[in-house]
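Take a look at my tokenised protein here and describe the backbone shape.
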Amino acid sequence: MDRHLSAVQLARLLRVPPGARPYYEALAGAVRALVLDGRLPVGVRLPPERLLAAEMGVSRTTVTAAYDRLREQGYLESRQGSGSRAALPDPAALGADNPWAAPDGDGLLPLHTAAPAATPVLSRAIEEAGRDYHRYTLGMGYHPAGLPALREAVARRYGERGLPTRPEQIFVTAGAQHALHLLLFLLAAPGDPVLLDSPTFPHAIDSARLRGTRLVPVGMPEDGWHIDLVAAAMRQSEARVAYVIPDFHNPTGHLMSRDDRAALTAAARRSGTTLIADETWAETEIDGEVPPPLASFDRTVISIGSASKLWWGGLRVGWVRGTAALAGRLAALRASVDIATSVLEQLVVARLFEQVEQARQERRRALDASRATLTAALREEFPQWSFRVPSGGGSLWVRLGSSGATDVAAAAAERGVRLAPGPWFGVDGTLENYLRIPFTQPPQVLREAVRRIAASSVPYGYRPGQPLTPAL
């Protein structure tokens, strides 16, 4: 039976804040909220635009713009001859609002991404690399497995962290995301089960979906990993690959203990699952110490690293640590993608490794100051929100209580702040009650951002100390 709502019925459900501007955005937000809380069931046909416009006393152009907005966001599906129906978006498809496609410096405060500014030691490393660059211009410039100088530097750093490594075990990539993409295409076939935490890094979900694998999410409780749950999921799903972030997990900030690392690698051995450990945040501790790399507990673990968090995201250099044979297979695979990583950027990162401790100290001081500013500002403006303070990494995983993260993010964007709502980090569109808020920006930027987020809640009836909930 075809289910539909008349214009009168839908208008009665909608609660658009008086004076909202632009009105079509507020109207689209009101419809979206009805879908998210279940009052507008998925699949129900909405009234034609002209009828809803007449019922609400607005122009048809306004309703058309609102419907278009909902289609862009995935909350409305339209087919010729069958009208427009309520829908839920693919949680990995961000549509026209995809923040990763937004230009740098578009005027919005970028709290959707946990990307620190460049380290002060970068300029000198670039100058030194520039002086050495001419030595490499006599050759072809292709180093599919990576520049020898950088492979040696990465291997040496693993040794300093307690994991003896030979340069042949290092494969250099164009960032950690590139590394994960290549590994999934090498290790998992379409339809193979791939295990991930929920929540997890959004682009890991993207890569697994692009490969056509079957995603196996394992929920992460508030206190971190429950290894028995992860082990059961690996065993029951027969996962070929498991992607984990043991060092200051993105987005929750959890740091996996030594005992849990031993237990996780033992469980993976029993189930025949290959562990990929994303160590992108491993060098960003603020308090305490980080346990040895996950591969220290089992030589079959594959590690991913990156220059982005310790030094700068604009350096598109990452690496894989595995066996020498794995490095050779990856070099053959990447020939169909990009052949090799930029020589100049590899030289810069090799130079940066010579000053790694100085960079770690500088990053620790900056993150510590920003973390303190953000936690204090959130506690003052939003006492009803809750979060744990991580001992490192770059973000807070904030529980909003009765608020909806998608609506909070939409309201904040109108005040010039980009936020990352929880569903971005989930496989199945859940986590609507969470925001990831990074502390990688300078303190003054974070104070201003929190002030704007608080101000953005006024149209929804917010007052300090009260839940930030749309009045719908």
About this structure: The radius of gyration is 24 Å. Residues 415 and 431 are 23 Å apart (CA to CA). The longest strand covers residues 193-198.
